[in-house]
Amino acid sequence: MKKKNTTTTYLEWDKVSFLIKKLEKEKDYKFMLLVSIGCFLGLRISDIKQLRWVDLYQNDNLSIIEKKTGKTRKLIINDDLKNIINIAHQNLCVNQEELIFQNRFGKGAISTQYINRKLKEIFNRYSLRIQASSHTLRKSFGRKVYQNHNQSEHSLVLLMNIFNHSSIQITRLYLGLRQEEINNVYEGIELYN
């Protein structure tokens, strides 16, 4: 989109939890799982789309070769994510070797464009008024890690390594922290203080 700011943002964790529960209640298990994997593991959508049931179901960890970087990444699947995977598996899995996010023709993964369109619909349906895309999930993961580690420099170093960023400054920009700091400067200018 020309001359339009299309930067995606993140969801607060309580909204992530709300969204996952709503998708389960609506029996939209595919997008419940997609949102969960993105927010719990911080994977790029290109890596999520290539996952097979055998990669996740009844596993404690996941090892992938990132499509963008070619680097191997090892991840832990925590108990909450395992529960979500089990629910989705019971309702969706036909063959352990098939792609989890297979397109309707059964010939490859669903497109990123479809995922983005569907996420925008879902976010609008639940009045989650943010600039949303599949990248929102990865950024939500980053923000959760940042908050879990008391918004420390150490958390930024961890995220820099997880995201394979070349510097902490890039991680700050990615998470939108620099813009928040700038906004806080303007909000701190008060007439009677």
Task: Tell me about this structure.
By secondary structure, the protein is mostly helical. The chain folds into two domains: 13-133, Orthogonal Bundle (hpI Integrase, Chain A); 149-193. The chain has ten helices and two strands; from the N terminus they run ααααββαααααα. It has helices spanning 13-25, 29-41, 45-48, 53-56, 79-92, 112-125, 135-148, 153-163, 168-175, 177-187, and strands at residues 61-65, 72-76. A two-stranded antiparallel sheet has the order 1-2. The longest helix has 14 residues, at 79-92. The chain is globular and about 65 Å long. Residues 1-5 have low confidence and may be disordered.
Gist?
With 193 residues, the protein is mainly alpha-helical. The chain folds into two domains: 13-133, Orthogonal Bundle (hpI Integrase, Chain A), CATH 1.10.443.10; 149-193. The protein has helices spanning 13-25, 29-41, 45-48, 53-56, 79-92, 112-125, 135-148, 153-163, 168-175, 177-187, and strands at 61-65, 72-76.
